[in-house]
Amino acid sequence: MIIEIENLSKVYPNGNHALKEINLKFGRGMFGLLGPNGAGKSTLMKIMVTLLKPSSGRILIDGKDIQYHRKLLRGILGYLPQDFRFFSSLKTWEFLDYSGSLTGMKNRKKRMSEVDRLLDQVGLFEVRDRQANKLSGGMKRRLGIAQALIGNPSVIVVDEPTTGLDPDERIRFRNILSQLSQNNVTIILSTHIVGDISSTCQSMALLNKGELVFSGPPENLIKKAEGHVFNLSLSPVEYEKAKDQYDIISTIPTENGWDVQIVSDKTPVYESLAITPGIEHAYVYYMEHRLQTHLSE
Ligand code: ADP
């Protein structure tokens, strides 16, 4: 399944330019869409699932414009919205059963076995009889992914799935997604949490203020930060100065002051050690440095 986003723009009626000429192409596996709040991720996700119309441009799935093939899309799409909520007092399994019937699964026996399989997959089988709205926050998110998966979709759109989850639940959710991505599906994961873009993402895009500022494999983003991330051991006085001079990513107190990690285009004025960047470093480097350089060019 190939997804192509062509010259996609969205201007809201109040004039907010949420997406500006976005072009992207990706296939099977996990695709990570990363960007700070307000970048335009949810707008793009909503257009992707045809809840919103673009102002211009289009999205093609296997060459078919989704605006004109909504029925086809409904059959292959699973969606976990950012604000997934339910007010029903249904039991957990009943909620999934209901979601299944909405996707058109008429055969009750098949539906029930699918419900059980999914409850097991997302680790909710034990609480299947609990009222869905009484589940914990993390469990509700997992129920959200289960309802997105019912009916065996081949494109799964998850918008900010780990926001508000504790670290354990976040890891658990990430594992569920990466297991899914081993199957023959396309997962589009939108997030402002850099750590959600795991090594399981084959491909990713970085959005900022409605613009696409990077697309490609996460390794390529990381490569751009190579030679620009440093470890410094600073005295308290140096630390006070460094705070104004550099983008500090992390700070650890030591006996004599602070160990800090910074991103910088130039070799720091303090004694420093260049370190191998990770995705977090690369994100800060790209957002703070490349963009500023790019804008001042
Ligand atoms: P993200 O999901 O990355 O946080 P959004 O897609 O929600 O970003 O928002 C992108 C921009 O569009 C923001 O400036 C936001 O304020 C604006 N926006 C979002 N929804 C609407 C709307 N319904 N009407 C007007 N502006 C909107």
Strand order of the largest sheet: 6-7-8-3-9-10
Q: Terminal Cα separation, in Å? A: 38 Å
- Structural class comes to alpha/beta
Known CATH architecture of the largest domain: 3-Layer(aba) Sandwich
Major sheet details: 6 strands, mixed
How many domains is the backbone divided into? 2
Count of discrete alpha- or pi-helical segments spanning 4 or more residues: 9
What is the N-to-C order of secondary-structure elements (H for helix, E for strand)? EEEHEEHEHHHEHEEEHEHEEEH
Low-confidence stretches: none
* CATH level-1 class of the largest domain: Alpha Beta
Radius of gyration: 22 Å
- And the CATH topology of the largest domain? Rossmann fold
The proportion of residues forming helix, as a percent range, comes to 25-40%
Per DSSP, what share of the residues sits in E-state strands of 2 or more residues? Answer: 25-35%
Note the overall shape: globular
Average pLDDT number: 90
Number of strands: 14
CATH-assigned homologous superfamily of the largest domain: P-loop containing nucleotide triphosphate hydrolases
**Which quaternary structure do these chains form?**
single chain
Bound small molecules, deduplicated: adenosine-5'-diphosphate
Which key features would you list for this structure?
297 residues, 35% helix, single chain, four-stranded antiparallel sheet, 9 helices, alpha/beta, Rossmann fold, binds adenosine-5'-diphosphate, six-stranded mixed sheet
